[in-house]
């Protein structure tokens, strides 16, 4: 009996028995059975999907939208249509498919990381967002998303994969990348999954057929093909991996379960028994609060040829990094059926082709209407008259002496009335075109065509109606991208496991850098200078839990253009707003020098109105107060320099006041003007109280302070 679940060979692990990994023979046996199971489960559906793809890609040359028996009855053979009835292909389906896929390109789903527990930090979440944008940039992730979306809309299923690769040939640091799966039919995922994205898949294959020469080049240490062919004799499960010209290579992801004890420690910290994390927690807290048996999941990856394992390693993450993007999915009588936009529109497209061909045939027969005459009139000129309706003869001869038997001369031959296109034919063609729109859920307004709507609100309502009919494609893609984000945030702490400088990209495309240190205890460590200003931040992505949400809408550039249009309309109706918001309008303009012009424009606006002004009104008042303090300190220096009796004491006092001046300047940024005034006045009063300065030489109110001291006053004896 075939082990379709694949768990017979790994029951020792899943059942908590013998520890260690499965043997290569067991892994290969399970892999072959699983692949056979997937091929059997998806075979009928994929035959229909391939037909949908072929139907969608049809052209007038291929005639794939015409059944073979219909072509035969109409006398049309591919490559030769002379003397055959027209079989035209006016393919309208690509326009309907592109309407959905290109709308997705204009409103791409974006990944947004959010913290979900107390240990997570909002700033780390923003770093995650920037790292994911960088991963998408270096991976050309938009190509992977677009390909998956096109396959999903066309025939029902697309795939996205996440992989890791070394940053460079001379380093051990790795990068995470998002990969494109061009051929969806090369992926065979666990058919028992319930999640539309395949999050609960226990295994997955990505197959590839390569030439025998390429196989020998890539795997020189593997078993020769001749050996594989010998071993596969009589074994259908192996022989199907090798054919006359190619060898099948499959990437095989699968999950192994290891029964282990899970310990709980204070602070809701958990770790499996005897792991490094568990040892650290035991050293910190001692005996665990409680324990239970649990399945420890590991994701394995290997590359196989059906008979032997060519490469293998343990995958870093806890998810199988293959994401399914589904269109429409049904299960009928235990079989899975998947479809896209093309499936239900095929008959309407066939009818449209038929009626267009019928119309063309009737119009083409008009100049070929036969001549009607009496037999005797053509005697001797038969060869000319046989081709009279197909060739342009300069003249046609007849026998003029043919009579009606009573001596009357018969009239000359005349053309028969050509067939005319009936109104029913035109209505049938128009109806078939409308049926295509109904089958795809798209109407004239959605396609940018004029319709019976007259108002803008009515047009928007019809566009919304069309978008509603195809919204599940965009929604399923967004759900798949969210799963991609979860795979990435699970991988980042494990791939970026050493100190490094990570490149991050902001929402506006600005490139920045973030320092990563997985060894620190806190999620964000801030390094400050002596004045308390943060000069550096170090992040640890391994602390806390994070989740992903997806936002679907226009990109940053589109949003900026929309904001510019809205502000333009607002400023046109309210010109007085230029005095308070003109800088924002200029900032959103997309031309060189816009940012610099916005800064200069902002200087003409009242500082109290500017939300992002570099200097707040409080800070400006503090600066003015500090200028006054500086003048008074200069006067103190002048007083001290005029002390006559003790130059050493004089120099000592000067140094003390200079130190006090520097101290005030260092703390001024974090103090209010009132606090600064109190410090300066306290210093002056202390000098007066100690007798270093004559009591009457310095006024109590600083704004009324004299510009300079009388020359006869100085330090007391």
List segments where confidence is low: pLDDT < 50 over at least 5 consecutive residues.
Answer: 1-20, 612-616, 693-717
- E-strand count: 19
In which range does the helix fraction lie? Answer: 40-55%
- Round the mean pLDDT to the nearest integer and report it: 77
Choose one word for the global shape: flat
Largest sheet descriptor: 6 strands, antiparallel
**What does the radius of gyration come to?**
41 Å
Q: Which structural class do the helices and strands define?
A: alpha+beta
Helices, by number, come to 20
How far apart the termini lie comes to: 114 Å
- Percent strand: 15-25%
Description:
- The protein is an alpha+beta fold and 717 residues long.
- Among the domains are: 168 residues, no CATH class; 189 residues, no CATH class; 47 residues; 85 residues.
- The protein has 20 helices and 19 strands.
- The strands form 6 sheets. Strands 4, 5, 6, 7, 8 and 9 form a 6-stranded antiparallel β-sheet that branches. Strands 15-16-18-17 form a 4-stranded mixed β-sheet, with helices on one face. A 3-stranded antiparallel β-sheet has the order 3-2-10.
- Helix 4 packs antiparallel against helix 6 and helix 18 runs antiparallel to helix 19.
- It is flat and about 150 Å long.
């Amino acid at each position: 009996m075939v082990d379709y679940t694949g768990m017979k060979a790994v029951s020792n692990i899943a059942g908590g028995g013998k520890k260690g990994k499965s043997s290569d023979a067991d892994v290969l046996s399970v892999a072959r059975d699983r692949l056979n199971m997937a091929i059997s489960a998806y075979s009928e559906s994929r035959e229909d999907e391939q037909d949908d793809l072929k139907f969608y890609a049809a052209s007038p040359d291929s005639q794939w939208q015409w059944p073979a028996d219909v072509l035969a009855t109409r006398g049309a053979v591919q490559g030769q249509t002379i003397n055959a009835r027209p079989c035209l292909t006016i393919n309208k389906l690509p326009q309907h498919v592109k309407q959905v896929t290109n709308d997705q390109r204009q409103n791409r789903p974006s990944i947004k990381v959010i913290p979900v527990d107390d240990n997570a930090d909002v700033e780390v979440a923003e770093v995650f967002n920037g790292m994911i944008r960088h991963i998408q940039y270096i991976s050309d992730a938009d190509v992977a998303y677009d390909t998956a979306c096109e396959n999903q809309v066309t025939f029902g299923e697309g795939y996205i994969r996440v992989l890791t690769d070394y940053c460079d040939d001379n380093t051990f640091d790795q990068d995470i990348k998002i990969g494109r799966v061009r051929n969806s039919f090369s992926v065979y995922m666990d058919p028992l999954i319930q999640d539309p994205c395949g999050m609960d898949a226990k295994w997955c294959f990505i197959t590839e057929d390569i030439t025998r020469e390429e196989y020998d080049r890539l795997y020189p240490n593997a078993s020769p093909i001749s050996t594989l062919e010998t071993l596969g004799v009589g074994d259908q499960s192996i022989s199907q991996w090798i054919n006359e010209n190619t060898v099948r290579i499959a990437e095989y992801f699968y999950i192994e379960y290891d029964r282990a004890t899970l310990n709980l420690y204070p602070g809701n910290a958990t770790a499996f028994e005897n792991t490094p994390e568990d040892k650290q927690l035991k050293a910190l807290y001692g005996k665990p609060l409680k324990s239970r048996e649990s399945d420890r999941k590991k994701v394995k990856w290997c590359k196989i040829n059906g008979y032997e394992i060519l490469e293998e390693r343990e995958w870093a993450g806890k998810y199988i990094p293959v994401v399914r993007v589904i269109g429409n999915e049904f299960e009928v009588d235990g079989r899975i059926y998947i479809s896209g936009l093309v499936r239900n529109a095929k008959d309407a497209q066939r009818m449209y082709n038929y009626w267009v061909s019928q119309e063309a045939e009737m119009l083409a027969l008009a100049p070929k209407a036969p001549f009607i005459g009496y037999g005797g009139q053509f005697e001797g000129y038969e060869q000319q008259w046989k081709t009279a309706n197909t060739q342009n003869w300069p003249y046609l001869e007849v026998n003029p002496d043919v009579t009606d038997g009573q001596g009357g001369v018969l009239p000359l031959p005349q053309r028969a009335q050509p067939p005319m296109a009936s109104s029913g034919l035109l209505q049938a063609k128009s109806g078939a075109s409308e049926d295509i729109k109904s089958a795809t859920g798209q109407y004239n307004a959605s396609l940018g065509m004029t319709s019976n709507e007259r108002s803008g609100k009515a047009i928007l309502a019809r566009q919304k109606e069309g978008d509603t009919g195809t919204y599940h494609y965009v929604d399923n893609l967004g759900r798949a991208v969210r799963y991609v984000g979860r795979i990435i945030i699970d991988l980042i702490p494990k791939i970026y496991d050493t100190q490094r400088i990570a490149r991050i990209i902001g929402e506006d495309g600005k490139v920045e850098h973030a320092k990563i240190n997985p060894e620190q205890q806190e999620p964000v460590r801030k390094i400050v200078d002596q004045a308390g200003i943060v000069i550096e931040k170090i992040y640890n992505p391994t602390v806390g839990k994070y989740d992903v949400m997806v936002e679907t809408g226009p990109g940053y550039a589109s949003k900026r253009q929309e904001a510019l249009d809205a502000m333009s309309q607002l400023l046109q109706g309210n010109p007085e707003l230029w005095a308070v918001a003109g800088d924002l309008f200029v900032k959103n303009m997309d031309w060189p020098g816009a940012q610099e012009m916005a800064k200069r424009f902002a200087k003409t606006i009242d500082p109290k109105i500017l939300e992002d002004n570099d200097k707040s009104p409080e800070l400006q008042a503090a600066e003015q107060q500090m200028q006054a303090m500086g003048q008074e300190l200069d006067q103190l220096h002048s007083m001290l320099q005029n002390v006559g009796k003790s130059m050493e004491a004089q120099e000592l006092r000067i140094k003390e006041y200079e130190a006090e001046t520097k101290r005030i300047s260092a703390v001024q940024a974090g103090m209010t003007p009132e606090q600064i005034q109190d410090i300066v006045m306290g210093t002056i009063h202390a000098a007066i109280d100690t007798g270093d300065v004559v009591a009457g030489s310095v006024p109590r109110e600083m704004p009324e302070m004299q510009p300079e001291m009388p020359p006869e006053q100085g330090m007391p004896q």
